[in-house]
Amino acid sequence: MKLGDVGNPGAAKYGKPLDGVRILAAEQMQALPFATQLMARLGADVVKVEHPTEGESGRGALPAMTDPNGHRAGATFLRNNLNKRSVGLDLKSPKGRELFLALVPHFDVVAENFRAGTMQRLGLGYDDVAAVHPGVIYASVSGFGNTIESPYDSWAAYASIAEAMSGIYDYMQRDDAPPVIGPAGALGDISSALFATIGILAALRHREHTGEGQYVDVAMLDAMVAMSDIVPNYWSMGMRPGGLGPLVIVDGFRAKDGWFVVQVGREHQFERLAKLVGRPDWLHDKRLATREGWRIHLDAVIRPAIEQWAADKTKLEAAFAMNDEGIASGPINSAPDVIADPHVAARNMIVELERTDDVAEPVLIPGNPVKLSKVTQGPETRWPWIGEHTEDVLRDELGLSDAELAALRADGVISATLPA
Questions:
Q1: pTM of whole model > 0.85?
Q2: CA-CA distance, 403 to 354, in Å (whole number)?
């Protein structure tokens, strides 16, 4: 799907479910920007507040491209900021904070994801914002939350930190090998963003009934404890490190061109697997009579048979053959596999955006996974350049004159005018 394309065009007459919802987001990196991008895709008007000359920290990520104004546009920024407008505003200056608070009553939601306590110290916390807009939904995403004292309040929090502290790295660690960090991308960021989205939508619904705003507080560690639910749950039920792990077959197996995964967790599935790979004798093998036996003898007995069966098959052929027999399986795909996948294309799950430097290949980012029958997919608009919409927003929302805008630019409070 290319920038500006529309999927499900017959739904255009219905509009978007979040049309009319306005979000003012002092955001950076991914844990909040993913949430606001998702809501923008569903119709919300998102105005992003960032530093007037440097932009937000996600712009500094690598790999990167160069934007038309000579600034770095890092991959983290590019993945999370479609369909937004950017206001360059120095929140550390008194005038910048004054302008931010002046904008607040024009928005339904104010959201931020700085380190806990930062916005309060700037005079832009929930109480400050609610004083000028009592009905506001104020959402914070931080490493350890803002509503209780945490022993980790002074710590920086990236996705890997929250993931590590949730226990999932220790749970997945094998033998004495170093733990694999970030095995699922920025899961700590994206899970936090999804819970923030749910919280914001629930608070908006509550306001419809009561007229009251409220504070939505999401801690990344909380989000990862929820996502890593098996860690405390399995421990409470007797599973310990160094044990057999879940008493199921859920492993990768080699085919002629790569790997595929198989999950067998029930006896009737094991029977199907045994017959498919030509080992019906497993059904009478006392070593394999229990799920515990499957795990104990996985590498010595089960794996060689499955991989011998798959030796003349591609990973996709093996997965199709497994599924034809009612056995859950799928290929372990590379990035080119994902990009070329017909399901991914049919679901508009890759968005192509032309680069603004000398590289011909487009930037690819995931599409919107939320499919609604009465909502179009797209059209997407490109990411904003740093402060690209500053003057438009301040002029339209606050009625500032050209002279006032020029003075703010001269003082470094807002972004300079971008070249045409």
A1: yes
A2: 36
